[in-house]
Every structure is written in C-alpha cells, then in structure tokens.
Design a protein that fits this description.
440 residues, alpha/beta, Rossmann fold, Arc Repressor Mutant, subunit A, four-stranded parallel sheet, three-stranded mixed sheet, elongated
C-alpha cells in the first residue's frame, strides 16, 4: 500500500514525471497550497472533451469517460474559487460553442414572437449546451441531455460553486441520489419526458459534474445517503485549513502562452475516438483492488471496502484521461497518479465522513476518531489475541470477529503466529509497507 488513508495528513501528490507533463501545466498558475486539491477536480472538465471513446475495464465491459464527478471540501476562504478559474480556461471552446447555440434559441424566440397566434410558428431548433449555467433547472438539464444525444452524444459539464445547487439541477433533494447514480452509470432517466414543445424522450445521461462546499454543509448534504450508492459514486477532495500564515497566496494568470499550450492537449481529447484496451491501466486497477481489500481487512470495515470499488473506477477514468493527454501512451507516472487519486478520495471520505459510515453524529473534527482505523497499527509488534480483542472493542467492533481478522491478516502476510510463545508478530513485509506509508 502506497498511502495511509488513516493518517491525519492527506496523501502527498506524486511529482509529475514523464507522461504527466500536463499536470505541470495545469498547476502552473494555481497557488502552491491548492495544487493537490485542484488537480483531481480538473479531470472531469478535461474528460468532458472526450466524445466517442470507450475503454475496457477489468470487468470486460467498455465505459465512456463521462460520469466523472468531484466534490471539493474545505473551510471558507481556503481557495476553492481557484478551481473556477482553471475550469474556465479548460472550457473555453465549450463556451464558444454554447454562444452559437444560444443565438439559435434567441433567433427562434424572436421569429416565434413575431408570428403572433399564427399556426405556422417555427419548431424549436435542436440545441445542445455543452457547459450549462450553474442555475440550470432539472427540466433544462434533462432536455439538454436529450439534445446532446440527438446531436451526437456529447457530454455536458457543470461546475457548481455550492453543492446545494445539485438539488435544483435534479429537481429537488429527493431526486439527487437517483440522478447522480444515473450520471455515474451513464443510464437513461428511466421514464419518458415531455417538454412544453411536445418533445418526448428518455435521454442517456452523459454528464460530468463538480461542486464545492465547506465540511459542515457536506456532512449535512450526504447524511441520509451514506449507504445507497450515491455517496460512494462521488470522489472527494478535502483540504484542511492548515497553519495560520500571514501571506496572501500567489496565483498566476491564464495568459495566451498558457492557453496555447493547453489547447494542444485539449485537441488530443477532442480527437480521441474508438474503443481502447490499455493493459497497464487495468493492471493498476487490479493492484488497487487487492490493496483496498487489505485496507478493509486492517480496519475490518465492510463499508470502506464497498466505497473503494467506485473509488477505483473514478481513478481509472482519470488515468485514462491522462493517457489520452499523453498522446495515448502509458507511463509509470500516469499509474502513480491513478493510485494517488484513489487513495486521496478514500482519505477524504474517512477524514470528513468517517464517523458517519455507521450513522455517527460527531463533528467533522471527531469524524476520523470514530471512523475506520488500521487496528494492526494500534498493536505492538508482537501481541496476543486478547490485545486485538481489546482494540476491537475500543473501536466499536465485536469480539466475535477477532479470530477471523487474525486469519485475514495471516493470509495477507501481515502477521505470523508462533505456537511456542502464543504471540502474533508483524511481518517484515508489513513493517516495510508501514515505513513506506510513513514517508509519503
């Protein structure tokens, strides 16, 4: 395991290397303290440029790169607005496209109004907005999905500055969970839809979505959806306030030189078509699946294990986007970022929501204390069954699961048992793994 999701500090971002030069460019104008949380949040915007490409996941199914989401969580004034500036640079071509679409609607509305009550009013033109406004309604969002499908199946991207705006987009709080699941899974809305113009349809939801909030709002927003699949489908990025520093963060400018370089990369996304099997990408996904099972065994936490499944898929899609940006060439650095994306998401979930995995009501500061824990790290290098049993009870686990947990740890090579002493001892493999995590 490369990172410790139970640590109080966030997993450190890998240094960009060969094949991830785009990371250096994307972060070149972002203030130093916001670079790590901003990077994962830009991938949904970048992936929205990909249309007509599918990638084969290790489950042997092909997936498009739509359905990517992200929730940036941090205290007020932390710098979350920097995401908006970078997103606007990435989505310039979308803005240009949408301006022409809005002109079509304006011209149609003008002609329609001049016709009075005549029956020869023109039909509403087919339009598709790629970067809808932040105050989009549910009806407009679904009608736009229908237009996007009819005009080629593009992905619409929304960047909402507040998570509560999702409720308006989904038609109310009760509909958020279903809509987000449809977005992640690229499903149809499940029912015929009628508009004022008589258009009906059941659009396939191709959308990428990012939003932001403070921790308190995030905890309240997801409180009732921790186990229905909605929460698991959202990759999170948490940024703590950190030390008080009397320095104003230095942000750069997205000048013409930056935009020119960025456009060269965006062209690769726009031109990517077809079906792809990227074996190194899937190899990392398989490795992550094994690591996530080990993490869940260390904490003896089924919820953590279930959450990890979709964390891997989200990280896999991000890495596929980086693969396209690197001219469809895999490098070790892309794999390192894929691993980091996955761990950063899970760390953020544990840090902000850990106590809520099982219905806790603690504050954000207490969430990690009551959330999943690596119980093996809480034990001495040599220990007996009774000591683990005590740790389990301290962490709210049943003593009946002690023997099963010891068996899981032995099978994974984390501990060895001595019949002479009756003690379990952490293996060199586990100690080296812990040492690596401690240095990250």
């Amino acid at each position: 395991m490369n990172y410790d999701i139970f640590s109080r500090t966030a997993p450190a971002m890998p240094k960009p290397g060969k094949g991830t030069e785009i990371v250096k460019l994307l972060l070149s104008q972002v203030s130093k303290g916001m670079q790590e949380p901003i990077l994962p949040m830009t991938l949904p915007a970048l992936a929205a440029h990909v249309s007509g490409a599918e990638f084969k996941y290790p489950d042997n199914k092909y997936y498009e790169l739509c359905g990517q989401m992200g929730h940036l969580i941090g205290p007020s004034g932390i710098g979350k607005d920097e995401l908006h500036d970078l997103v606007e640079a990435i989505m310039r071509s979308f803005r240009d496209h949408d301006e022409e679409e809005y002109k079509k609607l304006e011209n149609w509305q003008h002609v329609k109004n001049t016709k009075g009550d005549n029956k020869d009013k023109p039909d509403r033109p087919e339009v598709a907005i790629w970067f809808p406004p932040i105050d989009v309604t549910s009806a407009a969002f679904l009608q736009n999905a229908l237009g996007l499908e009819k005009l080629g199946g593009r992905t619409q991207y929304l960047n909402l500055p507040e998570v509560e705006m999702v409720e308006k987009m989904c038609g109310g709080r009760k509909n958020v969970s279903v809509m987000v699941r449809n977005i992640f899974d690229r499903k149809r809305v499940g029912a015929l839809r009628a508009t004022a113009e008589g258009v009906t349809g059941n659009p396939l939801i191709r959308a990428n979505l990012t939003f932001s909030s403070v921790p308190e709002v995030a905890r309240l927003f997801y409180k009732r959806d921790m186990t229905n699949g909605f929460f698991a489908r959202i990759p999170f990025v948490y940024k703590a306030r950190g030390e008080r520093k009397g320095k104003i963060p230095r942000k750069g400018e997205y000048d013409e030189a930056f935009l020119q370089k960025l456009d060269e990369y965006l062209l690769r996304l726009d031109n990517c078509k077809g079906r792809f099997v990227v074996k190194p990408l899937n190899k990392v996904a398989d490795q992550l699946a094994e690591e996530m099972a080990s993490l869940a065994d260390l904490a003896d936490d089924d919820v953590l294990f279930e959450l990890s499944h979709r964390s891997i898929i989200s990280a896999w899609k991000k890495a596929a986007t980086l693969w396209i940006l690197n001219d469809q060439t895999w490098t070790r650095s892309i794999g390192e970022f894929m691993v980091w994306f996955c761990y950063y998401d899970l760390w953020s979930k544990v840090k902000v929501f850990g106590d809520m995995f099982k219905g806790g009501e603690a504050s954000e500061d207490d969430s990690q204390k009551r959330g999943p824990k690596n119980m093996l790290d809480s034990l001495p290098n040599s220990f007996n069954e009774a000591q683990l049993e005590a740790i389990r009870l301290e962490f709210g686990k049943s003593k009946e699961g002690t023997k099963h947990q010891l068996s899981s740890w032995k099978n994974r090579g984390f501990i060895e048992y001595s019949s002479e002493t009756g003690l379990y001892t952490k293996t060199e493999k586990y100690l080296k793994m812990s040492d690596v995590r401690g240095k990250m």
